[in-house]
Design brief:
Layout: H1 2-19, H2 32-45
Helix pairs in contact: 1-2
Amino acid sequence: MRRAQAKWIGVVAAVVTVIGPAWGLPAQEVTKESVLRSIEMAKRFL
């Protein structure tokens, strides 16, 4: 369970890093808070 969860968090973090600039967020401004928000959004779809 934990391992799968960690995998999804890693996937979401990678997606945020890649897609963040497309959302108008410079890569260096992708903060922990925005990553956590994205993880929460992703959890709703899982």
